[in-house]
Amino acid sequence: MMEVSLADYRNFIRKRTIFVISLLFLLILASIYSLLVGSSRLDCKTVIDALMGTGTEKAETIIWNIRLPRVLMAVSAGAGLALSGLITQTVLRNPLASPFTLGISSAAAFGAALAIVSGVGGIMLETALGGFQITNFYVVIISAFAFSLIATFAILTISKMKGASPAVIVLAGLAILFLFSAATSLIQYFGTTEQVAAIVFWLFGSLSKTTWVSLEVMSLVLFITLFISYRWCWKFNALYLGDDIAKSLGVDARRMRLVGMVIASLLTATAVSFLGVISFVCLVSPHIARLALGSDHRYLIPSSCLIGAIILLVADTASRTLFLPLTLPVGIFTSFLGVPLFIYLIIKRGERAWW
């Protein structure tokens, strides 16, 4: 009997490992394709030569200054948003929770917009890639993170209220979302024409603002939070089962919930500061991974990150290739892609519990 159980467990591990490896392979293929396509279509040899530093000056400029940082940012930001959504859903035990639906993204957007309008964030208009570029992005990140923490602590306070159901928490998050959206509109009203244009362009959500410096910051935040989250995967599994079970297993549910929401806020604030508001990636990615793998965070964390990276990368590639020579904001594509996908997941799941 023990041999059968051991064989079943090994089969369980093998299937989930194969799924994660398949996602990684799919992400690599999507990244290669994204490097090849664009307003200037390049073949594989040209791209390889440019990456090796032996290509033409034009090809190297396109690959190293435009496409490669954009692809890597899509991977980093998509993985970060997916991880923030997964952590939020786990610590609040709410399938509808995400930084977007709970108003954390909206609060981060307000913080960044406030930094831009006040002048401390700094903006540079008419950049080489069009639009604008934030010059003092560390100030913008701090401002976005501070306001995302305000929304986070408001959600945590409401979740501790007696009788606060998952539906109440989501409704409170929607209220916070509308509050900060209205506040963002208010500061746009008092901003200059240039500041308003920068905020509007930024709120669309776009990877065209990507630089190597912003990519380094986003990647560093992702690496640190991913490392911490994966070390805590067993604690997340315990928290997933409820506070009482987590306590019996020696997990401080209150502390985990607080730290988890802070991590989710940091990931969201960093992504929003550089890219603007990108919706649905943080909500849909964990659900797709959970449908395929179950609730074991040893596999749920890497698969959610890979799915989020694939979704954002595919959406960005589509946004800059489908309507050439126009490049549409990726935030529009993630919404168009995320809404039908999420509705499909709801219909597929039916009346069965999400947890």
UniProtKB/TrEMBL annotation:
The keyword RNA-binding does not apply. Its main location: membrane. One of its GO terms (biological process) is siderophore-iron import into cell. SUPFAM superfamilies: ABC transporter involved in vitamin B12 uptake, BtuC (SSF81345). Keywords: Cell membrane, Membrane, Transmembrane, Transmembrane helix, Transport. It is found in: Cell membrane. It is a multi-pass membrane protein. The chain crosses the membrane at residues 18-36, 71-92, 104-125, 137-156, 168-191, 211-230, 258-287, 299-315, 322-347. It comes from the Archaea. This is Transport system permease protein. Pfam families: FecCD. One of its GO terms (molecular function) is transmembrane transporter activity. GO terms for cellular component: plasma membrane. It comes from Archaeoglobus profundus (strain DSM 5631 / JCM 9629 / NBRC 100127 / Av18). Belongs to the binding-protein-dependent transport system permease family. FecCD subfamily. The keyword Cell membrane applies. InterPro entries: ABC_BtuC-like, ABC_transptr_permease_BtuC.
